[in-house]
Design brief:
By secondary structure, the protein is α+β, with helices and mostly antiparallel strands. The chain contains six helices and twelve strands. It starts with 15 loop residues before the first helix and ends with a helix.
């Protein structure tokens, strides 16, 4: 596994060899399988053996938030759909692992950054629907006066490369509010439904949020990944480069940007204007 994790790992966690052996046998089966029950079995086995990573800590109660994440490659089943604010493993039907059931966590967004590379190692029929490469702050939830975001980066390797090296990055931005009422008020006109958030109104100036102490991060220089602010250390996410396109389709031949759904965007604009 790539990246640091102070979390206890599953007994049968993948290594790069068992991971590739699993995908070699189960990926073709998954593509051909028609029975929902069998598809779920493959997903559960995959998720059960992934390494577990810490992605944030609550700035209010201190509870860590972790989940299984595939850092071995982009060919895994978890890399498929754009995230909708419920964490990386949500598409696998796996809930985030939050000891103590933190009541302050509202949204978990993530951003896949290819670091200027074409993932030629992707399976020929593999397609990843992703959002922007560069992490941003959503202004709507941050309108809550008590809202604080936490950012963290994990490296992702390339399928078939031994030993694994960090080739891509995935950035997590988690949103917390001390009071559920403040989050509800800030997002009341957002059109939010469970597990889904909109990314239209965003701010890429992460430094300003960090300087205002409303954007914190996990310290990758410490094995326990403590939560830190700009008062403790220099902000490490000031100059992230990449594509800002709100939608990207990633395949082994490159990245394409679909045409925006103009009608849906116009409707959302007018819905936001309604009081």
């Amino acid at each position: 596994m790539l990246g640091k994790s102070p979390i206890k790992q599953p007994d049968e966690v993948f290594n790069e060899h068992t991971y590739e052996k699993f995908l070699e046998t189960q990926y073709p089966r998954y593509q051909q399988e028609k029975r929902a029950k069998e598809l779920v079995k493959i997903q559960v086995e995959y998720g059960r053996r992934l390494p577990i990573y810490l992605t944030s800590r609550c700035p209010f109660c201190g509870e860590p938030k972790s989940e299984p994440i595939d850092t071995f490659s982009l060919n895994g089943f978890g890399w498929g759909l754009a995230n909708y604010g419920a964490g990386w493993s949500a598409d696998l039907g796996l809930p985030p692992k939050t000891p103590g059931k933190c009541r302050h966590l509202r949204i978990i967004s993530y951003f896949l950054n290819l670091r200027g590379q074409v993932p030629v190692e992707l399976f020929s029929d593999k397609q990843i629907k992703a959002g922007p490469e560069v992490p941003s702050i959503m202004r709507v939830p941050m309108a809550a006066s008590d809202a604080i975001a936490v950012i963290h980066e994990l490296p992702v390797g390339r399928y078939g490369e031994h030993p694994r090296q960090p080739r891509y990055s995935v950035y997590f931005v988690s949103y917390f509010t001390e009071r559920s009422e403040s989050f509800a008020e800030a997002t009341k006109d957002w059109g939010v439904h469970y597990g889904s958030v909109e990314y239209d109104d965003v701010d890429y100036d992460l430094v300003s949020w960090a300087e205002g102490k409303r954007l914190l991060w996990l310290d990758n220089n410490h094995p326990e990944l403590p939560l830190v602010s700009i008062a403790d250390a220099d902000f490490p996410y000031a100059d992230i480069e990449g594509d800002h396109s709100p939608e990207r389709i990633i395949t082994c031949t490159g990245v394409s940007v679909p045409q925006p759904d103009i009608i849906s965007r116009i409707m959302r604009f007018f819905q936001r204007g309604k009081k």
